[in-house]
Amino acid sequence: MSSAHSSRPHTTLRSPTKPSAAGHTSASSPRSSRHGHGHGHPAPVVTASAGCFVSADARIEGTLNLGIGCVLHPRCAVLVGPGASLTMGSGCVVEENAVVRFAGPGAATLGSNNVFMVACVADLVADAGGNSMGSWNSFAPRSCVEGVRVGDQCTFAAGTATNASHPFLQVKGDEGKAAADSDGDAFMRTTGHPAAGAAPPLVPSRTVVHGGASNARTWDGSGEKQEMALRSGATEYLREVLPKFNKQRAL
């Protein structure tokens, strides 16, 4: 998993409600903004590494750290609770109307190249014996994932729902092994929420949640390099095109 921290300089983004007088802040001299938002919502304190695009129309609350080249579209929402912090690894993308939430307490860390597509909802859990989420995960439009840790290269198809008490989720230790049903899908059972004090269940790496019943199966990794190259190219395209048509959050 990639870390959002880099030897490259970081820039702290200011609240769009009170942009800096100069309009920009040098990445070599980061400043943070803690303007109140009212209504009990924590003011945004956003630290962005080089190459990020953060739309002025993105809704951000709380402490957010962005790795190199992250993209936050207009009208997306990244909501972090008071006293908590969220760190996204390099190349993560949050699209229009997608909601990424971390209520806290503590810290949640995401790996690199995770994509949160239009109108999906991801309710994150705190880091527990590892990052809250790995790398190269894809949350399709209107998917909903809450209360679980996520491994690497998982796909949550459009309209699916995944949570800690889902009848298809079973976790064995930290591996999340699944049995196969007659259709070859990974089918995972649970008896309810995790015991008090237990780490949230882990969605195993390469899990694909799909279909109206949110069935799960394991991807065999075929076409992995092509998939990564395609997604990297798409993210690079967004970094080039979005600033041409959307105002960037003032630095």
Major beta sheet summary: 8 strands, mixed
Which segments are poorly predicted (pLDDT under 50) over 5 or more consecutive residues?
Answer: 1-36, 171-193
**What is the helical fraction, as a range of percent?**
under 10%
Total domain units: 2
Encode the helix/strand succession as letters: EEEEEEEEEEEEEEEEEEEEEEEH
Oligomer: single chain
Chain-averaged pLDDT: 79
Identify the overall geometry: globular
The order of strands across the largest sheet is: 3-6-9-12-14-17-22-23
Return the CATH class of the largest domain. Mainly Beta
Write the CATH architecture name of the largest domain: 3 Solenoid
Question: Strand share of the residues?
Answer: 25-35%
Strand-pairing-aware structural class = mainly beta
* CATH-derived topology of the largest domain: UDP N-Acetylglucosamine Acyltransferase, domain 1
Beta strands, count: 23
Estimated radius of gyration: 18 Å
Helical segment count: 1
Instruction: Give the CA-CA distance, first to last residue.
Output: 28 Å
Organism: Apiotrichum porosum
GO molecular function, one term: dynein complex binding
Main location: cytoplasm
Family: Belongs to the dynactin subunits 5/6 family. Dynactin subunit 6 subfamily.
